[in-house]
Description:
Helix content is 77%, strand content 0%. It is an all-alpha fold.
Amino acid sequence: MEPLLSYSPILLPILCLVIWTLVQMVWMIAIRLPAISAANLGPEAAQRTDQLAAQLPKEIQWKADNYNHLLEQPTIFYACALVLAIAGLGEGLNLYLAWGYVVLRVIHSIVQSTVNPVLPRFGLFMLGSIVLAVMAVNGVMSLVG
């Protein structure tokens, strides 16, 4: 079935990163709630996330930290990709960059949520940031001609 309106291909990586963020949220909840229960902490323990984090094993907190990270820098990605889609620039290099950013964020999530070595995780973050910056600059250059 063909959509009534054509769409920009760059919308697909946006939706995939949204879905990944929701997967990370479910993973966080599935790990965190049993840990809270096992630690005999009541619902009030979650009033302040920093205090809750201090009472749980660090491996449990890594999932929550990553979920929070997926709600930070990716918001810039969403804005950039939507502008590119609206401007008709959501194909070619920009599309490849968008997919690259999504793949790097997923890898970053898996690394942070499982083994969490800081330097490799930071390298993934910086590489994703560079991809996002190139995407934005490419968009600006295309828009100003």
